[in-house]
Hints:
The protein has 241 residues and is of the alpha/beta class. It has helices at 18-21, 33-36, 44-57, 62-69, 78-87, 102-111, 153-166, 184-187, 203-213, 228-240; strands at residues 3-7, 92-101, 120-124, 126-128, 134-136, 173-178, 195-198, 221-222. Helix content is 38%, strand content 16%.
Amino acid sequence: xxxxxxxxxxxTIIDENSDTWIVKCAPERKLPNGLRNSYQPGCWxxxxxxxxxxxxxxxxxxxxxxxxxxxxxxxAGMIDLLGFIGENKELFDxxxxxxxxxxxxxxxLKAADFHKVFDEVFTNPAAFSSTGYLTVQxxxxxxxxxCPKNLCxxxxxxxxxxxxxxxxxxxxxxxxxxxxxxxxxxVMFLKxxxxxxxxxxxxxxxxxxxxxxxxSPVQCSVLVWSSAIDIMSYLKRLIKE
Length: 241
């Protein structure tokens, strides 16, 4: 009996978008209009690359960024949930699949001492250059027309499960916890025995209910959450069964 918990990061583990939160470091806590309007759909990573150049050009250093990022609040109930998972690691494997980046997620999880809860983090690789600028790259290349070009979460999940099977690990159930439009692709890959947990009032919940209305519902069970305590209640029931 082992369960796989798959978490998105922004608006799921933390109650904000880490990429937009970093703008608090910018002069006057905002970006120039030209930069803000330079985003093109599907090219978020490139846009964030330009934001990081702007911050670097304005002398914003790593420690200031880190201080700012570690003030992001966790979602309601999330600290309790992650504590519970940490105490029951023999039952749960736990991964993050996120369109944020390695530097931000690492800072936030380590500051709250939650990095040991997660077995792996799949997100865009980021690092500081020799000149002190933060740089970010695409996580991978893929052929999925539904996903942003830097990350298909279904591909990540499928490859992770294949690798685990090679190690002799299979899961009784996958629990997928997310909020965004880019979480729909992996949710559609889940089986009848799995469960999707979309955050109430966010894009993923809306997209799942649109599919149900058009009579092409997702295969897995769906349980909506508004506080991570809802997720913890479900996991407690699961391990009692």
